[in-house]
Design a protein that fits this description.
By secondary structure, the chain is an alpha/beta fold. It folds into three domains: 180 residues, ABC transporter transmembrane region fold; 116 residues; 227 residues, 3-Layer(aba) Sandwich (Rossmann fold), CATH 3.40.50. The strands form two sheets. It has a six-stranded mixed beta sheet with strand order 6-7-8-3-9-10, with helices on both faces. A four-stranded antiparallel beta sheet has the order 2-1-4-5, covered by helices on one side. The longest helix has 54 residues. It is elongated.
Length: 620
């Protein structure tokens, strides 16, 4: 049944198509580093096939000579010793072939998986905003394993061809009539395989789809956020009923697939049994008329069992190879996606030390179309019909400058473009027109590594990995010493909280840091930023989860930590607004006001209205 599980990625219509030679050549490029091992495995398979025809010949000699009373005790011992030696040699070759196949297959999985992960890491943020995480993980797991099947398929086909060639040669030498009769049932294998392939592939796809639905339900409901939502809305019973329906679909498709598979293998066994019976029929007649000896008939019967198994495998080899190539195509689809934000030819790093001057010059920005940054097959259901259309302009001719060591505050109503503008500084996106410059250089002319090294970001909802506190902090600077980590945490006013945890800095924070409160996560992310010590800091409402007392402590810490660094702050807190050297008021993607806090209040414009409705309420 494993053969038909491998067809689960194929539509029935795909079973009729030809093998894409371009994909096959590209797949071979990944296997090329293992060509030495492949050659060795080829020799091992040939040796196994040759050794496989010897046991029936030994049995033939034993039976014929024993019946004719022409075999001494020493002769029996010799033939038995030969049989044991052949068995030992076949076992050794089998182990060697198994090791070679595993080494090649697992190596191919490793190479593909690392290449995929490395390439996906280079993709821009826009790629992940459109992509379903589960679909992407499937490429890294299921499709990579499917690609490995190509090696197994080719090994199986090669082994079957060797076995078929050696077995037919031996049978023809013993009796060409029996051999021809045994081959008369071969069309039956092919017809059964072709007729049932589509049906089994369809059932396999249905089972895969049902499994995917069930897995998606489990993934969404069994994480912390999903479980919390179910509890808050009192839906455990309805969720259990829905899961029961999805699990029932998996059960029903599994039963149908099992029955159809049993029918297929039973039919093949029946065809094989008919062929074997025909061999015994003509062989028995040969014994009666003296044209065959008992040992010859015994050897032919053994060869028949070796003949039908590779014929069955070869009949379905095309399906197996098509399945593997579909997996390769899905992997190559991701590898072929060009990162929309990447180092340009000739990009150079920022000159050290980075001063932190920031210039935004007449920036217009539209979010890119899905077609330019994503892969349609990874976007799941509900994909936009007009995938080649970018968004409406989010930023419209924005310009400002920030001197090193100064703080720029971005304020404005929701949807004004504040977060979008801040995301252009670390080059999460490229501007549609205009330029963002650091120390006078366009960020597009710089290496991404140097830009991200110069810019540090603390978002409104900071992400923590399911790892220890110390590991999450060292993500900013892996070589940081324990003393430096403690110093950063003291500056962020989080050290005492960490010290009180059961395992201190070795405490695991849980998925997305759910074992910590919102304010604790925020302060931990600020400590991570301080540990990185960038020249430019972007704070996207970084103090939004803190109470007034903690906020005052953090503001003091940031006041020291940001000295000499450029800060771009999106904030709804009065303390941040009042401390800014420059306030930019955005509305509809444009800067409609700019200046200091007191000046903007006296102007009586949008900032004054926002202050009255938001900032004064927050202060109160």
């Amino acid at each position: 049944m494993a053969r038909w599980r491998s067809a689960q990625h194929l539509d029935p219509s795909e079973l009729e198509r030809g093998i894409d030679r371009a994909t096959l050549r590209r797949a071979w490029a990944f296997a090329r580093p293992y060509r030495g091992l492949l050659a060795l495995q080829l020799a091992g398979l040939a040796g196994t096939a040759v050794l496989g025809i010897l046991p029936p010949l030994v049995l033939k000699a034993l039976v014929d000579r024993a019946v004719a009373h022409r075999l001494s005790t020493g002769g029996v011992n010799l033939l038995v010793a030969a049989a044991v030696a052949i068995a030992l040699a076949m076992t050794a070759l089998g182990l060697l072939n198994r090791w070679l196949g595993s080494r090649i297959g697992e190596g191919l999985i490793y190479d593909l998986r690392v290449a995929l992960f490395r390439h996906v890491q280079r993709m821009p943020v826009a790629f992940f905003t459109y992509t379903q995480t589960g679909s992407l993980l499937s490429r890294l797991s299921n499709d990579v394993l499917g690609a490995q099947q190509a090696v197994g398929t080719l090994s199986t086909v090669t082994s079957d061809l060797f076995t078929l060639a050696t077995t037919l040669t031996a049978m023809l030498l013993l009796s060409w009539k029996v051999t021809v009769l045994a081959l008369l049932v071969v069309p039956g294998f092919v017809i059964l395989d072709r007729r049932m392939a589509k049906r089994l592939a369809t059932l396999s796809r249905q089972r895969m789809s049902s499994n995917a639905d069930m897995s998606s339900t489990m993934a969404e409901r069994l994480n912390v956020a999903g479980a919390l939502l179910v509890k808050l809305f009192g839906r455990p019973r309805s969720e259990a009923e829905e899961f029961s329906q999805r699990a029932a679909a998996v059960r029903e498709t599994g039963i149908r697939l099992a029955v159809q598979s049993r029918l297929y293998y039973g039919s093949l066994a029946l065809v094989g049994a008919v062929g074997t019976a025909a061999v015994y029929w003509i062989g028995g007649r040969g014994l009666i008329n003296g044209s065959l000896q008992v040992g010859t008939l015994t050897a032919l019967a053994a060869y028949v069992s070796r003949l039908y198994s590779p014929l069955t495998d070869l009949a379905s080899a095309r399906v197996d190879l098509l399945t593997a190539l579909v997996s390769f195509e899905r992997v190559f689809e991701v590898l072929d996606a060009v990162p929309a934000v990447d180092d340009l030819p000739g990009a150079t790093p920022l000159a050290a030390p980075v001063e932190g001057r920031l210039d935004v010059e007449d920036v217009w920005f539209r979010y890119p179309s899905p077609a330019t940054v994503s892969i349609e097959s990874l976007e799941g259901e509900g994909t936009r019909e007009h995938r080649d259309e970018p968004s409406e302009p989010i930023l419209r001719g924005v310009s400002f400058s920030a001197e090193p060591g100064t703080m720029v505050a971005l304020v404005g109503p929701s949807g004004a473009g504040k977060t979008t503008l801040s995301s252009l500084i670390p080059r999460l996106y490229d501007v549609t027109s205009g330029a963002v410059r650091i120390d006078g250089r366009d960020v597009r002319d710089l290496t991404l590594e140097s830009v991200t090294g110069a810019v540090g970001v603390v978002s409104q909802d900071p992400h923590l990995f399911h790892d220890t506190v110390g590991a999450n902090l060292r993500y900013a600077r892996p070589e940081a010493t324990g003393e430096e980590i403690v110093a950063a945490c003291r500056a962020a006013r989080i050290h005492d909280v960490i010290a009180a945890l059961p395992d201190g800095y070795d405490t695991v924070v849980g998925e997305r840091g759910y074992r910590l409160s919102g304010g604790e996560k925020q302060r931990l992310s600020i400590a991570r930023l301080l540990l990185k010590a960038p020249a430019i800091v972007v704070l996207d409402e970084a103090t939004s989860h803190l109470d007034s007392e903690n906020e005052a402590l953090i503001q003091q810490a940031l006041g020291v930590a940001l000295a000499g660094r450029t800060a771009v702050v999106i904030a709804h807190r009065l303390s941040t607004i009042a401390a800014a050297d420059q306030i930019l008021v955005l509305d509809g993607g444009r800067i409609v006001e700019r200046g200091r806090h007191s000046d903007l209040l006296r102007a009586g414009g949008l900032y004054s209205e926002l202050f009255e409705t938001q900032f004064r309420a927050a202060a109160g």
